[in-house]
Amino acid sequence: MADNALVCWMEQEQLWELESKPICQLDLPLNLDQHRHNTFHSCLKKLRVQARQRAGELPITC
């Protein structure tokens, strides 16, 4: 990431307004909320449900 990622920031009171524009323009299959049209959506949604269920079954260790 250090070689390929660029990070910047700006103050924004209503982040969701600024954030929704690029999210809707890009194909981000891991963002289920705004990409229901992606063919990967239903598969990933099922996998996430299974992962949550499995995590709930696992013992908590310290």
Comma- or semicolon-separated keywords:
62 residues, mainly alpha, 45% helix, extended
| Sheet with most strands | none
The residue ranges in which pLDDT falls below 50 over 5 or more consecutive positions are none
- Beginning-to-end CA distance, first to last residue: 31 Å
User: Which term fits the overall shape?
Assistant: extended
Residue-averaged pLDDT = 84
Number of helices: 2
Query: Which structural category do the helix and sheet elements fall into?
Result: mainly alpha
Could you characterize what this model shows?
There is one protein chain. This protein is extended. It contains two helices and no strands. The longest helix is centred in the C-terminal third of the chain and has 17 residues. It starts with 14 loop residues before the first helix and ends in a 5-residue tail after the last helix. With 62 residues, the chain is an all-alpha fold. It has a domain of 36 residues. The mean pLDDT is 84.
